[in-house]
Each structure stands twice: as structure tokens, then as C-alpha cells.
Automatic annotation (TrEMBL):
Residues 24-273 form the EAL domain. It comes from Aurantimonas endophytica. Signal peptide: none annotated. This is Diguanylate cyclase (GGDEF)-like protein. It comes from the Bacteria. The chain holds residues 521 to 808 of 812 of the full protein. Coiled coil: none annotated.
Amino acid sequence: AKEGGRRRPLRRFVPAMRERLQRRREMELDLRAALEEEQIELFYQPFIDAGQRRVIGFEALLRWRHPGQGTIAPSVFIPLAEETGLIEQLGIWALEKACHQATQWPTDLAISVNLSAVQFQSATLVEDVRRALAASGLPASRLQIEVTESLFIDESDKVLSILTEFRSMGLTISMDDFGTGYSSLGYLSRFPFDKIKIDQSFVRDMRRPENIAIVRSVLGLSKALEMQVIAEGIETEEQMRILYEEGCREMQGYYFSRPRPAADIPLMLVDISNRWNHDFAVTEALRR
Ligand code: C2E
Ligand code: MG
Ligand code: MG
Ligand code: MG
């Protein structure tokens, strides 16, 4: 075969691609086994009300402790689970586990669970949620679900009927990563959202006037639409203070706590409540 210069990139590309496919197939098999072998776990990250100075709930976030590769991030294995259909099983597992664990907490806090857009293609999603609530005994009013804008790419009638059903059951429905997807603002009024989560990309650099402007307009929008609003990805006191000054009260981020295992929930509650008078004192000062 000719070894022309133009073919060289292809010669490198094909084996690399084969290797990638191979790795992907291996990870898919590993993921199937992971659920049975209890390598999958839920971590919890608190979200707070800075006005009332208290934790109001925890978001459940999947972790995969892979025996050979250490902890694999959800940004890696969730897309894989979505492509292979495993997300349905994984999603139900997470929902049932989160509902069950929330019933063991010391107080009646909210539990927020992420649902993939792919799960909305399942004919049994509403039933699965009902069953998770019934089996755990968790009141529906404590369960929040988080969906992203990718939900609105297609099949909006089906999505609307599922969300409407969730709403009538008493769940809180949050729009996660708001402002990063295929947004048409119209869906905010057409679909029954209770809460908007301002994406962390807007919070990260709050010194940029553009990001302040975006945050301010989302806060205005949520007020006009009578929706709750929460900012995610808060890492510094400065970000907290600016958000508070802009009128945001619900917050979540590493500044309050990183996601931690279920067993650490009592610790996280104590830790945050101890920090109101120093680390988070800024919001108390702003109240006066
Ligand atoms: P998300 O739902 O937007 O979750 C927030 C992500 O930001 C989490 O990453 C969290 O650990 C991280 N985070 C929280 N506070 C901060 C902060 O102050 N700074 C920074 N840099 N990051 C922060 P994680 O746990 O890696 O999850 C990534 C994404 O994976 C989630 O984004 C969610 O879309 C998805 N995911 C996680 N668990 C589930 C699940 O059970 N089901 C589904 N469908 N998706 C899930
Ligand atoms: Mg989320
Ligand atoms: Mg998010
Ligand atoms: Mg996200």
C-alpha cells in the first residue's frame, strides 16, 4: 500500500478509534455489573436558604467507584448509560435509593433527584416515581426532580403530560443548568416548572458585568413567572454576597459543602449551622 503523507492521519486515527470503541464496550459491561456489585453510590450536596439561614434540602448525585479505575464521574458514565439504555435502570435505582435514604434523615428536608431526558421516553416513568414514593413512604411534597433543557428537543406533548402528572402528585420540578441548553424561553411558561436553577457557569465569574446581568434577568424572570430560583456552583463568599444583594436566597455550591456520602448528612447539617455566624455572616449583615 502507498504510504502517502495524506494517509498518515488516518493510520493514526483508525487504531485510536478502535481502542476508544473497545474501552467504551468494556465500560458498558462494567456499568451493567456495577449496579449489582454495589459500586454505584449516591452522594448528597445541601442547598440552603440564605434568608432563613438553614439547609432546605439535598441533591442526590451519582458516584461510581470502579474497582480498577477509581471513581468515575457522572459526566462520563451518565452519557454512556443514556446511549446504552442503562439509564432507565440506573435512574430508577437512584430514585428509589434517594427516596429511601431521605426517610432516614433527622429532619423533613427536600430531596432533589436528577432525571435524564432519556428517562422521559420510558412508558413507566410516572409509575416508577409513584412506586419509589410508596415503597419508601416519602411524602411527594419532599421530592424534587431536576431536568435539563435537553428535555425539550422533541416529544414535547409527552413531556408536558408527564410533568403535569408530577405536578399534580405534588412534586417540585426544577429546571437545571438554566441558560446553557437549547432554550426557548417559551417552555418556561408552557411547562409546569416550580424552580429555576441558575447554572454555575454564570456564577463562576460574578465579577463579569455580563454574568451579573444574566443572573439579574433570571431573578427577574423567576419573580415575574412566580417561580423559585436557586443559584448553583457557589464557591466563594464574594459570590454568595453578590447573589444575596441581587435578591437570590436559595444557593448551592462547594462554599457550603461538597457532595458527600449519605452517612455524612448529620455532619453536614451541624457544620453548616455552625458556620452561619462567621463564614456566612455576610448575609446577616446584609439583612440589616
Ligand atoms: P448537576 O445536576 O448540574 O449537578 C451539579 C454538579 O456540579 C455536580 O457534579 C456537583 O458535584 C457540581 N458542583 C456542585 N457545587 C459545585 C461548585 O461549587 N463548584 C463546582 N465546580 N462544581 C460544583 P457531579 O456530581 O459530577 O454531576 C454532574 C452531572 O451529572 C449533574 O449535574 C447531573 O447532570 C448528572 N447527574 C448526577 N447524578 C445524576 C443522576 O442521578 N441522574 C442523572 N440523570 N444525572 C445525574
Ligand atoms: Mg442537578
Ligand atoms: Mg446543574
Ligand atoms: Mg449539569
